[in-house]
UniProtKB/TrEMBL annotation:
Residues 14-121 form the BTB domain. It comes from Cyclopterus lumpus (Lumpsucker). It holds the Pfam family Ion_trans. GO terms for biological process: action potential; protein homooligomerization. This is Potassium voltage-gated channel, delayed-rectifier, subfamily S, member 3a. The gene is LOC117751538. Gene3D superfamilies: 1.10.287.70, Potassium Channel Kv1.1, Chain A, Voltage-gated potassium channels. Chain C. The chain crosses the membrane at residues 186-207, 227-246, 253-271, 331-349, 361-378, 390-411. It is a multi-pass membrane protein.
Amino acid sequence: MFGRVLHSRRSGDCFINVNVGGFKQRVDCDALKRFPQTRLGRLLSCSSHEEVLELCDDFSPSEYYFDRSPRFFLYVLNFYLTGKIHLADGLCVLSFSQEIEYWGITERHLDFCCSNKFHELMKLAEDKSVDQGSGELQPHSLDSSTEELSASRDDVDLFEGSWCATLRRNIWIRLEDPGYSTSAKVMAVASLSVVIVSIVAMCVHSMPDYHQVDLHEKEIENPVLTFFEIICVLYFSAEFILRLAVAPSARKFLCGPLNMIDLLSIMPFYVTSACDAMDNGENTDLENVGKVVQILRLMRVFRILKLARHSAGLRSLGATLRHSSSEVGQLVLFLSVGISMFSALIYFVEKESQESELQTMPIGWWWATISMTTVGYGDTYPITLAGKLIATLCILCGLLMVALPVTNIFNKFSAFYERQRRIDLRRRQRDELHTVLDKYVCGAKEKFGIFWNFA
C-alpha cells in the first residue's frame, strides 16, 4: 500500500488510521480485506498519491482524512466487523443511501431486519420526489404525458415578441385551460358536446335500421347522419386550425399526442370525401378506392380519444401505460409461457377423444388464452377427465399470472390520477390568483393612471 499509514504491531498484524469528521479510529486491515470493493478496502491496493486522493479527501503519513459524518461511520465500522449494515437512527433514507454508496457498501449487505424497511422508505421517498417534480410542471420530466395540459399555462412566455401576442395568448389560455374563466368553460363544454354527438352518430351509423340504398340498390349515406358528421368535422377542423394559429410554438403543438389525435380524427373525412369524388365507377385505376374509404372511415374511432383532453382519468390511463412497459412485458411473458405449456398439455390429453374440438395445437392456444384470461367463451372446452383437471389448473395459474403485474399497474394508475388531480387543483388556484391580480392592476391603472409591467 502507498504511504506509511500501514502500521505493524507484530508479524501478520497491521492496521490503518482514519479520521472521519474529527472522529479517529484504528481499523484492522484483515477486516478491510474481507470487503475489497469498499472505499477503505480499496485503499489497501493504492500505489500512488493520485489513487489515494481519489478515495479520501486528504492524507498524511499517519492517517487518512474523510470529510463525512462521524456518526454514520460507526455503522460502517460495525459493517466491517459483522458483514452487515443497519439503518441509522434519525438519518434520512436518501442520506443513508448516499452514505453507503460513498463507502462502497451495497444494499445487499443490509441485514434482514432493515432490508424491507429500507426499500419501503426509498419507494415512499421516490413517490414524494415525483410528486414535487410534477408540482413544478417541468416540461421535460418523466411524467410529461400526465402534465401536458397542466404545463400549457407555462407556455405563455413564448408569446412575448410574437405577432398579436396578447390576443393569441388570451385565446390559447381559454382553449387549453377550461378553468381559466367562464368563457373557457363554455368552450370546453361545447367541444365535449360535439365529441359526444360525433361518437353517438358514429354508433347510430352502424345500425342496420339507419342504412339507406338508392334506386340501384347501392348503399348510400343517411342524410341526417351525414349532416351531423359534416357539422362535427367542421367544428373539429375550425378548433384545430384555431389552436394551431394561436399556439406559441407550432412545432411543439403538432408533436403533442392529443393534437395528433385531433388531426387523425378529422383527416379521414377529407380523404374519404376526395376518394368518393374520384370514384366515378368507370376509372379502373380506382377500383380499390372503396376499400380504402372503408378503412379510413374506421379511423373515426380516434374521436373517442378526444375525450382525453377533458378527462384526467383518461390522461392518467395513458401515462400509466406509458410508464408500465416492464409490467406489461411481464404480463405478456407470463401469459405466453402459460399458454404454450397448457396448450401442449390439453392437446396431448384430448387428441384421442373424438368428441373434443381440441385436436390441434393452434386450437389449444386459443383455448388456453381464453381460459388463462378467465374469459371462457365456451366455444371450446375439454371433454376428458384429465383435460378438465388441466383446465382447472390453467384457470388458477391464469388468475395468479394476471393478478401479479396488474397490481403494480393499478398502483401506478392511482398515483398518476391523484397527482393529476393535485396538478389541476394547483392550476385552478393559480388561475384564480392571476385573475385577482389582473383585476387589481386594471383598477389601479384606471384610478391612479399608473402604468407598469408585471414580469
